[in-house]
Write a structure and sequence with these properties.
mainly alpha, 2 strands, two-stranded parallel ribbon, 2 domains
């Protein structure tokens, strides 16, 4: 919350006191918010800090002005957690729309795989499947073998499952 308040101070010239997750959402969705505002947050991580974050967001959505054009985009790196937010019984059920991001096309993925020769670029793209996180990890400047051993085959690696 302190980091968010500091970021607002840098952009808005005011550092609001934000005591918790609920006031955070009230500030983003309240009447003082800019007309159109898009915030992308790793909601999965926010839920680790505050189990009530989904209920706090639902309450803030219920309190906001019905004529508001403010948009709040929440994103998360844990698919099951994000899907659970939309499930029946969740405070956000019926208040949100799911949007799955499509894998990047080969031309778009080249930015994640800079400095590789064409053959290595094609092979790494095929392995990563066009997903930005996978592309950024597998595009690091080491051998494909090392990348696969560290990230895919290692039980502690991010892509083991």
């Amino acid at each position: 919350m302190a980091g968010f308040a500091e970021a607002l101070d840098g952009r808005l010239g005011v550092r609001p006191p934000i005591a918790g997750v609920g006031p955070h959402f009230d500030l983003l969705l309240g009447p003082a918010a800019p007309v159109r505002l898009t915030i992308v947050d790793d909601f999965s991580r926010l839920l680790e800090v505050s189990r009530d974050a989904a209920a706090d967001l639902a309450a803030a959505l219920d309190r906001r002005d019905p004529g508001s054009s403010t948009r709040l985009v929440i994103a998360g790196s844990q698919v099951a957690v994000m899907e659970g937010l939309l499930a029946p019984g969740s405070p956000l059920h019926g208040r949100a729309t799911s949007l799955r991001l499509a894998p990047r096309r080969f031309g778009e993925a080249r930015g994640f795989l800079a400095g590789l020769d064409t053959e290595d670029l094609v092979v790494r793209y095929a392995v990563a499947g066009g997903r930005p996180l996978h592309l950024s990890r597998i595009g690091r400047p080491w051998s494909l073998r090392t990348a696969l051993c560290e990230d895919v085959l290692n039980p502690l690696g991010p892509f083991f499952d």
